[in-house]
Specification:
globular, mainly alpha, 277 residues, single chain
Length: 277
Amino acid sequence: MTAAPLEKPSVVVAARRRRRWRPASAVRRGVLGLFLFVTLIEVVPRVGIVNADYLPPFSTVMEALSRQGATAEFWTALGETLLGWAIGFSIAMVAGVTLGIVIGSIAWLRDATASTIEFLRPIPSVALIPLAVLMFGTDMQATLLLVIYASFWQVLVQVLYGVQDVDPVARETARSYRFRPLTQVRTVIWPTALPYVMTGFRLAASVALILEITGELIIGTPGLGNRIGVAQSSGAAPAMYGLVIVAGLLGVLMNTVARSVQTRVLRWHPSVRGEHA
């Protein structure tokens, strides 16, 4: 039996240092990039390269945002946006997972719905705005329709892929042992489909926020998007950019939370274990 060659201590130490400093370096580069971007936004309008009426300096935007944050209307709009996002996203997740497992588990149903899904899925949600306004006016339900429609397909398609990825031998074994349908879903289908479900979860979370803001902006449903539209139409550019920054921060926060949930739920999965190895 031949012993494996040992690495030189200096090489091992250097590799450990690289692994140790890599995240910190990435964070520093990210902070530096953000600082340069903010500096650019501050300097460009002040030196007259662009008209400050259209692109105000960053400090002016933050002053307007701080004034917005001191009003109850701002927090009410933020709450309305988060509520619409949460309701639409939850409905899309439940419907997408349930229908995805049912359709994906029944061969003839999957074949019968494949063409319909491929026809409906590419339709942009914004194309449904006239229908949503006709049905619900400018109420919250109009924007909910867009959010649910756009998010639902993200989840459904991922779940269908996950169900198709189930090992046929495991599926036939479960049938030969006469597992009940719910038992098959719990013990055979769900463990395989779960990584796909979490991918759909992460994608749908971002898409739902985009459509929530879009619906509020175009339809006029109460929320941050509606306040962005009001600020734009009244010529309050600093306030408008401040609200856009808030919408961007919401997107970053939701994506971070979704990634964290995905990592925790899939901590047993090889892809996640590989990231932390």
